[in-house]
Amino acid sequence: MFNWLDYANKKEVIFNRISWLKITGALLLAWDEDNFASIIERFGKVISQYNVIFTCSDISFGKVGIIITHRRKINEEIVGSLNGKSYIIGIVELMMSGTHSNRFHPSNRSNQTEIMMMMMMMMIAMKRKTEFTTHLTRHLKTLKKVRSIKTNQLNRTKDLRWQQFRTMRL
Predict the structure, then answer these.
(1) Do residues 67 and 20 touch, judged by C-beta distance below 8 A?
(2) pLDDT of residue 97
(3) Domain ranges in the chain?
(4) Contacts of 121 (CB under 8 A, 6+ apart)
(5) Distance between CA 143 and CA 141 in Å, rounded?
(6) 3-state secondary structure of 6
């Protein structure tokens, strides 16, 4: 028999659990551990990161392990911005087996939004590659011009010295 009953709602009960969150829609230019940590920190404390761009084979999403202090499953979207442009980032809690507890669906948007975001990321990456290639081509052309000028100067110097040598012998 109990002599008294203490109500639990008067006492602070701490609840912690470990969970993996999947991040979709983050632009490749923004893929790094610091950005992922800043995206996820509102949901809990980051303890591990997986699928950061330098170590992953699938760049369609990033995965972050966190400690959560609430029981509800996470399935949210946030708005991120890069270079003044906004984009939607989806955050979905993964079940322990690695399957999705809920699939991320932007509010009343079709999968075309996700496809468009991936296409935009690829276009940005291609644009960066093109800009780099253009810069490299210009640099190589400049080097060739400098080399050509130096070769011409060297040839002129050789010709001049040869002429001086010939005139000295005559």
Answers:
(1) no
(2) 45
(3) 11-109
(4) 27, 28
(5) 5
(6) coil
Q: Are β-strands 85-94 and 75-82 bridged in parallel, bridged antiparallel, or unpaired? A: antiparallel
Nearest to 42 by CA among 65, 71, 12, 68: 68
Predicted pLDDT of residue 113 = 59
Q: Under a CB-based contact definition with an 8 Å cutoff, are residues 95 and 85 in contact?
A: no
* pLDDT computed for residue 102 by the predictor: 45
Element (DSSP H or E) covering residue 64: strand 62-68
For the record, the structure tokens of 34 come out as 């610091």
Q: Which of 66, 60, 69 is nearest to 89 (CA)?
A: 60
The structure's pTM equals 0.47
* Residue-wise pLDDT tens digits, 67-103: 888 888 889 998 888 888 888 889 999 876 444 444 4
β-bridge pairing 17-24 and 62-68: antiparallel
Please, are residues 53 and 32 in contact by the beta-carbon 8 Å criterion? yes
Structure tokens that stand for 142 in this block = 């400049």
Q: Please, are residues 129 and 120 in contact by the beta-carbon 8 Å criterion?
A: no
Rounded Cα–Cα distance for residues 82 and 129 (Å): 18
